[in-house]
Amino acid sequence: MTRADFPLLAAHPELVYLDSAATSQRPASVIAAERAFVEHDYAAVHRGASEAVGRSTEAFEGARERVARFVGAQPDEIVWAENATDALNIVALGISDASAGLGAPDLALRECDEILVTEAEHHANLIPWQRVAARTGAVLRWAEVADDGTWTIDALRAASSRRTRIIAVAHVSNVTGYIAPVADVVALARELGALTVLDACQSAPHISLDLAALGVDFAAFSGHKMLGPTGIGVLYGRSELLNALPPARTGGSTITTVTMTDAQFLPAPQRFEAGTQPVTQVVGLGAAVDYLSAFGMDRLHAHERELAGLLTDAVASVPGVRLLGPEPGRERASLVSVDVDGVHAHDVGQFLDSRGIAVRVGHHCAQPLHRRLGITASTRASAYLYTTPDDVAAFAAALAEVRPFFGADR
Length: 410
Known about the structure:
The protein is of the alpha/beta class. The chain has 14 helices and 15 strands. α3 crosses α10 and α4 runs parallel beside α5.
């Protein structure tokens, strides 16, 4: 398993791809699985009694079983969504509907109940909760971050109260690489009688996950960040909670009985999977977790721990470059975001691109965090299993050229 497994990287051997936190590359085996399905087994799922439908449904549900095993869940705890943003919205909209009296009173929020997030959240794990608070009268509270953009369980506890009913946090920050103390978050939530919602977008692709053992109530992650296709995300939920949560979207394939005035819904996960499903993308995601499992998540974690150290050392070696998040030597994910003194992030990104290095620039869908850090944008380099120490060295060398090129070192 090498860089040659990834067609885009094989086609562009000069490319240093350091944007996997946004979208990872797909190995040939994933592309082949999608193509083979379309050519040989493509049909509707769960609709009809034909042999073709049976083959398609078997592929569709087989992928669900493999994804469930990959994250330590049962198949009926895995719901297909469009992406992680969609998955988080499914939870938020379901709680909003429950609060409006559409079933599941145990999930309902009352006026002055509290939803707790952190100042470091991706917009996908912030804006839905803003909407829920506005609709229900609940209060949105947040744990503030320190000057480096990280937060602590003490800060989360200080922002909580006996009215806290939901705690929603990212497992790994997509800006700072900070790894949240999930066990402590779950313990706090249980102490308060609150639900935990975990944004696992930056952890599921990189860390061996056992969501049941972690004890979170809901979690969300995306296929396109873990070697899979775009257009497919995953919502995990404890079975009893999914079956109590009102479905955010309704229609075909979700119901048992419909009258002109009412509808009864199927058990999870089908109750959330209205309409025609992204079957090809699901098959691709199944192949992606097969690839990751064969590579070995422990092996991947060790590889990325080395790269994280190289990335932080690289940034620390360049004058006038500020590292966001944990300082060198502290644990972090294999990504770094930087602020280059005197040079806008977009200019940094364009310069690096001219050197054949693909990175991410902007606020990374985390404007409140950037505002707290006193900047409008940052430049992010993120690694994955196909990233090499030579890639990091190329990044370090090019980063050292940025300020001199723009005359910001004078």
